[in-house]
Design goal:
Blueprint lengths: L6 H24 L4 H24 L3 H6 L9
Helix pairs in contact: 1-2
Length: about 80
Amino acid sequence: MRRNVGGIDRTARIVIGLLFLAAFMVVGIFVEMENTTKGVVMAVLLVLATIPLASAGARKCPINNALGRDTYESED
């Protein structure tokens, strides 16, 4: 798959990923709930943080590819 994530799309993915990562840390440190529930919430937040950060880092997104969307500007 060729690169298809760039510009504002990439920046937005980084910001969203970091917000989910911050929520993960806040839940882990400050939120009081049962350990099992807290673990599930933290796992979901970690997965939700990883997806946009990974696609921004790799500059590839399968969903963009399926939709025929390309925001990457070639450096050629």
